[in-house]
Amino acid sequence: MKMKKTLVAALPLSLAAMGAYAQSSVTLYGIVDTGIEYLNNSKGHSFVGMNEGIWGGERFGLKGREDLGGGTAAIFELENGFNADNGAMQKAGVMFNRSSWVGLTNDQYGTVTAGRQYTPYYNLLAPWSPTNWLTGALGAHPGDIDNLDTDYRVSNSVAYKSPTYRGFTFGALYAFGGQPGSVSLGQSWSLAANYKMGAGGIGIGYERFNNATEGGGAWSASSTAYSGTGEQGNTGITAGYQTAAAQSRLAVTGGWQFSEQFDVSASYSNVQYIAGANSLFRNTAIFNTAGLVLHYHPATVWDLAAGYAYTRGTRANGITSPASYSQFNLTQLYSLSKRTRIYALEAFQRANGQTLIANSAGTAVAVGGAVANIAEANSSSNRNQIAVTVGINHAF
After folding, report:
1. Cα(99)–Cα(321) distance, rounded to whole angstroms?
2. What's the pLDDT at 228?
3. How much is the pLDDT for 23?
4. Which residue of 171, 210, 320, 388 has the fewest C-beta atoms within 10 A of its own C-beta?
5. Which helix (H) or strand (E) holds 124?
């Protein structure tokens, strides 16, 4: 869930003379979020400790807009993630890891942006994402395998988003791989569209991330899908496929507002880790996920939600009992004000089947429970995991 509070910065005196021609503004915004987390099994032990960014990823950012006339404006966004528990940056050595882009927008022709940004796949499917009310930390689909949370940002990219016409919006993105002698190595691209009308809506999107290493292998830091510390989409759920030549995702999300108090959203995704000549696995690994979220708003200050998701892999690479994950989520949110809320979240996951060990040539092991985006280091030593968090979130 994204909350923002606008603070219009004073323009430097050197720009005052331009006031007659253009109106400019800069917005400072951010989120601070921290809580106490309990895991019943973290590598065989119970765990109680602080965790940050549970309801909304902690961030601070700047947005700017300058009207250029004729309905056109120049825009930019710089956004950094951080950890309020210890003050560290979310990605060491990457100051604006969440976004850093600049572009032009026009109400009639649409918006073009260039830099590090989310794909249209995420942006246009997000209105019905499971993480809107279940959060990404505990409610994302296992390992955020289908990128319906906010984990994936693409560098070196140019994106276009159309104006909304009769409820339809379209988006496209291309990210340059920048590899001499090859256009495809390291590149990323995405197409998506959604339709909103009345109480309902639906979105469909596709994205593909190519490795910058010929034929697959260790994911290269020069790939546009590189996060600053490693390959995006590489979690305990998919660690055995981190030498893929490419990742692709196709997803559909949608929802319906039955009343002011009650709405439902659903999602389906097909995710593929595609093998190449240098991959440590030989067959494309496919994961299908379906999810449902029920959201109830009984009073102005209360939001309640419940969700279920099921993820299943396919038989490939010597695995005859594919990995599967059943996950149940509950949310209770109480708003103290427009900027501040307290929340409680509960999740249970049961895992079955086998998966591949990271950096191995086809070594299969039994999967362990790993709720949503919980790190591999905190996954369960058996098939079950329970996670509970109580926290506070403040937006400015």
Report:
1. 39
2. 64
3. 86
4. 320
5. helix 120-125
> Tell me: the pLDDT tens digits for 38-94?
999 999 999 999 999 999 999 999 999 999 999 999 999 999 999 988 988 888 778
Q: Do residues 276 and 216 lie in contact, with contact meaning Cβ atoms separated by under 8 Å?
A: yes
Query: Does residue 88 sit within a domain?
Result: no
pLDDT digits 0-9 by tens, 332-382 = 999 999 999 999 999 999 999 999 988 777 788 899 999 998 887 889 999
Grouping H, G, I as helix, E, B as strand and the rest as coil, residue 200 is strand
CATH assignment at residue 377 = 2.40.160.10
User: Which of 55-83 are b and which e, b meaning 16 or more Cβ less than 10 Å from the residue's Cβ?
Assistant: bbbbbbbbbbbbeeeeeebebbbbbbbbe
DSSP structure class, residue 96: T
Q: How many domains does the chain have?
A: 1
Does residue 334 contact residue 302 with C-beta atoms inside 8 Å? Answer: yes
Amino acid at 230: G
Please tell me the distance from the alpha carbon of residue 105 to that of residue 112, in angstroms, as a whole number.
6
What pLDDT is recorded for position 40?
97
What's the rounded mean pLDDT across residues 200-216?
A: 95
Quote the domain boundaries for residue 372.
Answer: 33-53+97-395
What is the DSSP code string of 235-291?
A: STTTGGGTT-SEEEEEEEEEEEE-SSSEEEEEEEEEEEEE--TT-SS-S-EEEEEEE
